[in-house]
Specification:
Largest sheet: 5 strands, mixed
Order of helices and strands: HEEEEEEHHEEEEEHHHHHHHH
Strand content: 15-25%
Structural class: alpha/beta
Shape: elongated
Number of helices: 11
Length: 304
Amino acid sequence: MAWYLRREFEHDKDVWVFNDLRFVRNGDAAQIDHLVLCRSGMILIESKSATGEITVNKHGEWSRRTGGVERGMESPVTQARLQADFLRRLMAENDGRLLDRQLGGLAPQHFNHHWPIDIFVAISDQGQISRGMEVPELLKADQAAGAARAIVKKRQHGRRSLNPINYDAIYFLSDVEIGRLRGFLLSSHTPLRAGRTATPPPWEQIPAVPSAQPPAPQAGTAVRPETEAHQGPTPDFVQRARETHPNAFRPWTSADDQRLAALFRAGSSVDMLCAEFGRPPKGITMRLERLGLVHPQQGAGYRR
């Protein structure tokens, strides 16, 4: 499913895809397989790996047949709705620091029960679906990405229509708000730790930064005097750079590296990362190279 979503949205600058998120709130937890974020809402996709047959009978009861044995199962549509409600509540508790725009100059937006979160259940390509009743949220994995794209287009059209009773038109996050929300989703992710085997999400898998210490000179090699060594940019140059990028030439912290890797793997472009970190494009691409996230030959071509 992640592959289909990446193919569908990798070139869309107003859509962000998150995979394998886990949130904890008041002692409860929600695992979200795939989350598509746009400026006017979200699409939550519950992914089900199945090699047999998934059946929904006329009463809305779900079952799975594998190896000739049929067993009942919990409705993944209900599960996805509960996850969406969980996420709305989590966001609503933090909307004071995530949202600051005024709606028509009258009232601020809020992440309440009106915040649009559409849901789909995606069955793996190897599985089969038997329908005793129509379940519009139930799709094969290769169909779900296209359905998500249709939702995004509907919301973009709703925004242009400015229909006052259309919640796709009411909600529209600014660049600052969408950046805050993306950072909030990543920072709120709480992976499983002890007691169960879980693969850390991509933004936690950050290689160690190589040492910046130069190699020791070989015997008999002339060492250039310190006064002749490269002294870095002049103060005037740094001051001019910081007029447009306030953090230019400042040291990177480990927290910066974690956040940079998270946003990069979530699909942020160089321009978006420059705005987020207050650094010039070259500083961003060089740090990505240093973290091993892009190849040095790729850095200059990383999409803006």
